[in-house]
Write a structure and sequence with these properties.
The complex is a heterodimer of chains A (about 650) and B (about 325). Chain A is α+β, with helices and mostly antiparallel strands. Chain A has 4 domains: about 260 residues, no CATH class; about 60 residues; about 80 residues, 2-Layer Sandwich (Alpha-Beta Plaits), CATH 3.30.70; about 80 residues, Thrombin, subunit H (Beta Barrel), CATH 2.40.10. Chain A contains 24 helices and 15 strands. The termini of chain B are far apart. Classes of the chains: A alpha+beta (about 650), B alpha/beta (about 325).
Chain lengths: ~650, ~325
């Protein structure tokens, strides 16, 4: 079996696992549902997700340590992940092959020429990491202020020493410039520390998930392919799944796939920041693809199906080689090897990256954070529509960890968890938010699935006790996602004198967070003409025949009151029937009122957990008459509502 | 342009004009669409009641559900009076909420298990258990313990799939007209049993045997809460069951119908088995310290001839455990 066949088997194998993990992320008891399958495994193997969340949050959460394995293997072997494991890479590989299968060898070699644009992915990587590294920068900037302590001095000296060591080769011959550079650096740091307010401006945002192929593929399959396929088959879910703004996810996914018809592995070569990271990680790889001898027959067959556009025939772009091993297979003279020796035709470790480009992307990344936040999205202008799932970290910490992978939205049994659209801010794009109108029932009281699946603990893995405020959490009380607000201009009992209180009925909290106040709404006034047995004849009233005996309508003496009111048991256009028995009876000539008994809902914010079942069930089907917004959510003390 | 070329082009152009014209004229619509979509033929749920067993009722006082069910059927002459060999039985449970059985918001799984076991024991060919719950269906059946009980007792669970609903009109009804009703699970079914707990309900006063059929409605059924008593009475018109079993061994006396705390429950020690759902509800009301007169839907259903509000007139078999 040739090496290429082994590679294909590996690609199919990992691709199938990836699809399987997407498929089985449903709650349930079947083997094809969540039965301890390691559904986050590919996300955890992803070094970019690990490095990004580590830079931004300062820690490597649980399963993300799997990335160390990928890093170790990449450091030794090169970008094996791209052609052997990456499920998104497998899709590009297949489509690129499909796009070129009728082309001649010459045209295919042409498609696989290295292109200057292959440097773009490194710039993207640096920009994304710089945006995630704001926290690190922030600590560095604060350093001169902390110089009162010995450790502060030591750290500063260590940094200056490191800078000196790095710059010494270049600057040693010009000591004056070296001194100026050192002083300049010191001045910059002091300036930054004095100017930079902590947190809001210099901060970290994890946006790698926008382009990182593993979260991208996971999100696209979870939120596009599975719901679309299941809409036809109906095997995975009882009701069709919906994901708001799926068109934008589809646009990115389809564009990435279809670009293979212009250049094979377009995404991998030009865009993929994970590929760029692996190219850097494999800088010192022990084994590399390369030519055995400096002279060969020069047929260039090695480049006919070169996946990485790394030019093994000329001098190899080591960081671009995705180890597809096609060149080993196509070379008729066994000139191409994967070995520890350097390529006889020469090597180039990286594509041509300009220093300006590098600096620019780093600066852009750092500057992106204040640019995204000066609108106040983490401050006074936070969006109340962004209702986060139970256990979600405070917003600043949340955006340091969320990969936008869509796992929480996939596993959510009710479909209430939705990818946030652009209207909630670029930083929040595709992060989880609740849309109560979608799905089967708001956030279910006895469910903590999203926090259990979240690969980076952007949603903490809370227990049911913590969510509901039971046991050890009784003192803290239940987690609140927000608060329900009754829109009295739309609510049937408030605005239209119609009985309803579906919201109160469905409130899952005990005692209920929706209370009702009883009101008798006057529909008509009339005068009693005569009373014959149970029938009261009225003048001045035109009643809908047969519609008032439903149990909700009453006849009362003008002015009303509990002691002079009777439930109507039936009616005609000019008369009503009252039940036999004791109680108030109208007398001829008396002024009476026809009233409807209303229970008007009112939210007790001290008990409301913001689960949204009320909003989901509200019969005002468009803009609901009771709606959840994020005020009073547990994760932010600044947004509390009550004294 | 030579002659051959001219003929080819003329033929092509002619065919294009002919095809466009033919298609346009075939599909030509001078009026435009009407406001309403095409009316589907209304479907009806069959009457599952046994005429010979009308007005039968057993009231068992005790605190053991399984024993109470056994005693109740015994008092009525055995379950075989109602379920015959080869019957296909649908049990409509209340699986409304994704809450554990201990909170009493849903049909008790032990009681359901025993009912399925007994039906199979008297020769029922197939047992289907269904509901269209309020919370997420899969979560409801799994958290309430109902799914597990059905599986272990040998029944089949029918989830409320979208394709199971068909527009239904109840004759003489004002509200259930051309409304989606859960039909799929009734395929081939010959007997229907309603099995549900007695619960407090702020809007209607109580949620019992008649209200249990709310779970057969689809669509945005919540709009019916504007006229709750009428819809409950119409539900009793929609479904004429073989039997209803009203579980008041423990009743939810407050914060209904969701409950949420054991404090909302009270041991009321009564299991009601009846072929008359109105009478079952009339007696059930007393467990919540209410009278049938407090619940207008009981009077409305009785006036429609669907059962008796005066449950005492049925001369129920009363058993104490």
């Amino acid at each position: 079996m040739g090496i290429v066949t082994v590679r294909r088997v590996s690609q199919v194998f990992f691709f199938a696992w990836f699809l399987w993990f997407c498929l089985v992320s449903s709650l349930g008891e079947h083997y094809w549902q969540l039965r301890g399958w390691p559904v986050n495994w590919f996300l955890q193997l992803d070094p970019l997700a690990a490095l990004g969340s580590l830079l931004a949050s300062g820690s490597l959460y649980a399963g993300m340590a799997w990335a160390l394995l990928t890093i170790a293997l990449t450091a030794v072997l090169g970008r094996f992940f791209c052609s052997w494991v990456c499920p998104f890479g497998a899709m590009h590989h297949f489509l690129g092959w499909l796009a070129g299968w009728r082309l001649g060898a010459r045209q295919r070699v042409e498609r696989n020429r290295p292109h200057a644009a292959q440097a773009i992915k490194y710039y993207l990587l640096l920009g994304l990491l710089a945006a995630a590294g704001g926290q690190v920068l922030h600590h560095l900037a604060k350093l001169p202020l902390g110089l009162g302590s010995v450790s502060g001095w030591l750290l500063l000296l260590a940094i200056l020493a490191a800078c000196a060591a790095l710059g010494v080769r270049r600057l040693w011959p010009q000591p004056r410039q070296a001194l100026l550079a050192g002083l300049g650096l010191l001045a910059l740091m002091v300036g930054l520390s004095l100017w930079a307010s902590p947190g809001e401006i210099i901060g970290a945002t994890l946006q790698t998930g926008l382009l990182d192929p593993i979260p991208l593929a996971q999100r696209s399959i979870n939120l596009l392919l599975l719901p679309a396929l299941d809409a036809a088959s109906g095997q995975l879910w009882v009701a069709a799944r919906h994901y708001q703004g799926a068109w934008l996810i589809a646009l990115v996914f389809m564009a990435a796939l279809l670009l293979n018809f212009i250049v094979p592995r377009f995404y991998c070569r030009f865009i993929c920041p994970l590929g760029a990271l692996m190219g850097l990680l494999g800088h010192w790889a022990l084994w590399r693809v390369g030519r055995r001898e400096a002279k060969c027959r020069g047929c260039q067959l090695c480049e006919v199906s070169c996946e990485g556009a790394c030019e093994p025939f000329h001098h190899l772009r080591a960081s671009e080689c995705v180890l597809c091993m096609n060149c080993l297979d196509t070379c008729r003279d066994s000139q191409m090897t994967y070995a520890t020796r350097r390529s006889a035709a020469g090597e180039q470790p990286l594509p041509d990256l300009s220093r300006r480009g590098v600096v620019l992307s780093l600066v852009s990344g750092v500057a992106a954070v204040p640019a995204l936040r000066l609108g106040g999205v983490l401050g006074p202008n936070w969006s109340p529509a962004l209702v986060r799932p139970p256990g979600a970290l405070a917003e600043a910490q949340f955006v340091e960890r969320c990969l936008k992978c869509g796992q929480c939205m996939r596993v959510c049994p009710t479909n209430v968890l939705q990818p946030a659209g652009l209207e909630l801010g670029l930083e929040a794009l595709w992060t989880p938010t609740l849309n109560m109108r979608i799905g089967t029932s708001g956030c279910q009281l006895n469910c903590v699935a999203c926090g259990q699946i979240c690969p980076t603990a952007a949603i903490r893995p809370i227990t049911l006790d913590e969510k509901r405020g039971l046991g050890a959490f009784a003192k803290a009380g239940p987690l609140r996602l927000g608060t329900a607000f009754v829109d009295r201009g739309r609510c049937l009992p408030w605005a239209m004198d119609r009985p309803c209180i579906v919201c109160q009925e469905n409130c899952p909290v005990s005692p209920k967070a929706i209370i009702t106040r009883e009101v008798y709404g006057v529909l008509a006034r009339a005068r009693v003409k005569a009373q014959e047995g149970q029938t009261v004849r009225l003048t001045g009233a035109d009643l809908p025949p047969g519609r008032l005996g439903t149990g909700d309508y009453f006849l009362q003496a003008a002015g009303g009151g509990p002691t002079n009111r009777q439930r109507i048991s039936g009616n005609g256009a000019d008369h009503v029937k009252l039940p036999p028995g004791e109680g108030w009876q109208p007398s001829p000539g008396q002024e009476v009122e026809l009233v409807v008994r209303l229970q008007q809902p009112q939210v007790d914010a001290s008990r409301c957990i913001g689960c949204g079942v009320c909003e989901h069930e509200c019969p005002v089907s468009g803009l609901r008459a009771i709606r959840i917004t994020a005020e009073n959510e547990s994760r932010s003390a600044k947004r509390s509502l009550l004294l | 342009m030579d002659r051959r070329d001219f003929l080819r082009r003329a033929l092509g152009a002619g065919l294009t004009v002919a095809a466009a014209g033919a298609l346009g004229l075939t599909l030509y619509d001078p009026k435009g669409p009407s406001a309403a979509g095409p009316a589907l033929p209304p479907v009806k749920l069959p009457d599952f009641s046994l005429k010979a067993q009308a007005g039968r009722m057993a009231v068992v006082r005790g605190h053991e559900r399984v024993a109470a069910l056994q005693a109740g059927f015994k008092a009525l002459g055995g379950l075989e009076t109602f379920i015959h060999k080869g019957d296909q039985v649908l049990i409509k449970v209340n699986a409304g909420f994704a809450t554990p059985p201990s909170l009493g918001a849903t049909t008790n799984p032990e009681l359901l298990h025993e009912l399925i076991r007994q039906c199979l024991a008297v020769g029922a060919q197939r047992i289907v258990v269904t509901d269209n719950p309020i919370n997420d269906p899969q979560s409801c059946f799994s958290l309430s313990g109902i799914g597990q009980a059905v599986q272990s007792a040998g029944g089949a669970l029918a989830l409320p799939l979208e394709r199971y609903f068909r527009p239904t009109t109840v004759e003489g009804a004002r509200l259930i007209r051309d409304w989606p009703v859960l039909h799929g699970p009734f395929e081939g079914v010959t007997k229907v049993i309603g099995l549900c707990p007695v619960k407090d309900h702020h809007r209607s006063g109580a949620s019992m045997a008649m209200k249990n059929w709310y779970g057969l409605l689809g669509g945005r059924r919540n709009i019916f809460h504007q006229d709750i008593h009428t819809i409950i009475a119409e539900l009793a018109m929609l479904m004429r069951p073989t039997l209803v079993i009203l579980d008041g061994v423990v009743s939810m006396i407050s914060n209904g119908p969701t409950g949420g705390s054991p404090d909302d429950l009270k041991a009321t020690g009564t299991l009601i088995i009846s072929t008359d759902q109105v009478a079952a509800d009339a007696l059930g009301a007393t467990l919540l310290d209410k009278t049938p007169a407090d619940l207008p839907f009981i009077g409305q259903a009785a006036a429609l001839g669907l059962g008796r509000a005066d449950w005492r007139s049925l001369k129920a078999a009363e058993v104490s455990l």
